[in-house]
Amino acid sequence: MSPGAIDTSQYPNLLSAKVTKTRELMADLGLPEPEVEPSPVSHFRMRAEFRIWHEGDDLYYAMFDPQAPKVPIRVDDFPIASKAICELMPTLLDALKASTALRQRLFQVEFLSTLAGDMLVTLLYHRKLDDTWRVAAESLAENLGVQIIGRARKQKIVLDRDFVTETLSIEGRDYHYRQYEGGFTQPNAVINTAMIQWARRCVGEQKDADLLELYCGNGNFTAPLADRFRRVLATEISKTSVKAARENFTANNIGNVDIARMASEELTQALNGERAFRRLEGLDLQQFKLQCALVDPPRAGLDSATLELISRIPRIVYISCNPKTLSRDLQLLTKSHRVERFALFDQFPYTDHMECGVYLTQGQ
Length: 364
Fold this sequence. Notes:
Layout: H1 11-25, E1 35-37, E2 47-55, E3 58-65, E4 68-74, H2 83-97, H3 100-103, E5 106-113, E6 119-125, H4 131-144, E7 147-152, E8 155-158, E9 163-170, E10 173-180, H5 189-203, E11 206-214, H6 222-225, E12 229-236, H7 239-251, E13 257-261, H8 264-271, E14 290-295, H9 304-310, E15 315-320, H10 323-333, E16 337-345, E17 355-362
Parallel strand pairs: 1-16, 6-7, 11-12, 11-14, 12-13, 14-15
Antiparallel strand pairs: 2-3, 2-5, 3-4, 5-6, 7-8, 9-10, 15-17, 16-17
């Protein structure tokens, strides 16, 4: 079976099995009945990447089985990718085949699409890119109506811009996001929208309180949650994501967010008065009335100091990409908080992965 092949008729059974597995993992926590958000069964993934395999004059997209990492598997169709990516794949491949300047030592292609209709294609090479490549790439970008970036060792050529613009409709309002090449974005836009709406419903209106958001990324949750609170204090370690977040707050006319480029562990030290940071100069942390926290950590979950910090905050929204570390962290958080809502978001259909959301309030 091709890496992109799917049997959509099996999706309900696969989702049910994942839900059961996740509930069993957390059975000892006594969580409420989960709210399950299914994904579209196809064309749900907004980004994709493929190796480019050369066989004589032929080129094709390829993926690899981890059990046989040196044997390319040809990919002619990839129905889990967005319709825009699927439609562009054969057209782009034909254009690459027809151009020596574009195909020479090309080894990978990456696609980043949006619901708003924007598309960015990154071409990766095992050679230095020159003016001949630039001229051919500019013609390709114009003909296909997409953004093109060329990458080689110690080289990045951006023909126009290195981001796409996404628009998500959240409860009657459109939110606009710049998503930069190489920056983290949620891969399943439909499920991402559902997660944001769920988080908004959880926190409700807290206009006299402030939100602490750790791992805020490009402001994916921050922007739609900001109007629920008086102020928002957000942190993110990635320079690219912080840049995008600031631009996104401006684009959406959001003026009540303070964002600091620092790790969650560092902000914890600052809030505890253990350490001062130049990155926080001019920002009086004591002015914040932190009554709600939103955390969306990496797969490793939360460190012990951050867990201790948020356990002092009355309300917590915990978005998790790893049920195992979420279960571990909830063992501690449920000593001070009660789980009010539990949600499962099928971000990655046809895989074992399950995204989770938990809303906790202080008290037993």
